[in-house]
Amino acid sequence: MPAAEFVFVTTSSFGKPESADRSLIRSRCMRGRNAREGSRRSVRQAKRDSQLQDQAMRLQPLAHPLPTNSTSPHTRLQHREGENTPSSDIAPWLANNRVFSQFDAEIDKKARLVQHRFFTFGSILSAIYPIHRFVEFESTQDPAYYWLYQDDDFSHTVLFASSAFFDLVEHKALTARTQSYLQTALSMLNKRLSTTESHAFDSTIIIVLILASVAAIIGDYDATWAHISGLYRIVMLRGGLDYLRSDPSLHFKLDRLVLSWFLSTGQKLQFPTLPVSRTPIQRAPRRLTPDGLDPLINAGLLDTKVVLVLRDLQELVASANESLSSNSRLSGDKFQHPLATIQSRLLELENEVNSITSECLRLGMLAFLTTMYQLPGHRLPYNHLNNRFQTSLRAMESSTPELQNLTTWLVIIGLITVWDAEESWLRAIWDNIAPGSSWAEVHRILCLFFWIPSIHNVPGKRAFDKLRTEKSVRC
């Protein structure tokens, strides 16, 4: 016997339901009755049920049990290129479907689908923004779970993003189904934006942000530009910089988009940003920061302007690693503010750096920042960064052990973000600096620079293995 499903209705002071509720009562009492098999209504209902089940099943792989060979659930976020089973790699904290099985008899298909979408959406955010492992944002936005139930525009956008996510981690173009979800989401968004107060809803900016993020990830520059332009107008209507100050989480995500756009196209966006602070980040007492750059600084090989920025990034990375080692989290605003100024200053130094070594380091730091916005198993198209970084690294000399260590970090961070191990010019550089090194030795060098183990160890080891594999193939 199917489990009972309850709906609450209001009544008058005499206990009489409203007319609309009486219709609802009649429809629920007659549910499943007078239904002729093969009728158009039955066929439509069967099709809807099938679609709901299909969507739920498509999300199910994210809920498989995870391997337990890691000390932290977050370090199990590993997707190897070429694999078509993104489940255990992409959703490190997602509950197993069996957790929900006890409720299956108590909730309808739509509620179960909302659950799937909610946890899938959370998993996607965790994968795309890995800093959530050590940063705690106190967002002013309404809960996404509420929006999934109450906001159809948001729900359809999440459905599109989830479907696109699966397409991308399976290394294929957006499917026809995903494209149809996108068209529905865009149609609903356009209808919403036609109203005068659409910018006042918190969900509106999140919808546009999701669409812009997916467009950036797949390299659709026209769509990315259109959505970012819309975001700019909404942010200005909401109060500009003051609005961003009130929501560091949103500010962080917008800054990732701004950086992604510039590193892809070379074009700077006019977007509200915090005033660029040149006051160094206050150093925490007794905190150890990576010291691989100290010999280069002491030898006068780096521009002063670059040194000032790298010191702040060193401090930020050290605080992140300290939080991870102590199982604590940094405050979102205390993380986002220095990160925003570091990013702005690095972008300001475009064409302003005098030495090749300093320019390589500047580009390497920008590449490092991109790892805070990623999709495991899918590389974002940072064409501008790729070209400038390659040109600079090929021109840089690695004549001393200190420069060789820096080059080691630059090669690995470049492989994580923009390059391929098969590129002959990169192979030549690697063979010159670290021809027979083990991963343990390379990892020790990487940690002398900018390195967050929970984010970079897995892709870094994968990049190193590809270098070794490529060498053995050539031999």
UniProtKB/TrEMBL annotation:
InterPro entries named in the record: Fun_TF
Region (Disordered): 32-89
Pfam family, one: Fungal_trans_2
Alphabetical keyword list: Nucleus
Compositional bias of kind Basic and acidic residues: 34-51
Keyword match Manganese: no
Amino-acid biosynthesis in keyword set: no
Membrane-crossing segments per the record: none
PANTHER family in the cross-refs: TRANSCRIPTION FACTOR (ACR-2), PUTATIVE-RELATED-RELATED (PTHR37540), TRANSCRIPTION FACTOR DOMAIN-CONTAINING PROTEIN (PTHR37540:SF5)
Protein name, UniProt field: Transcription factor domain-containing protein
UniProt lineage: Eukaryota, Fungi, Dikarya, Ascomycota, Pezizomycotina
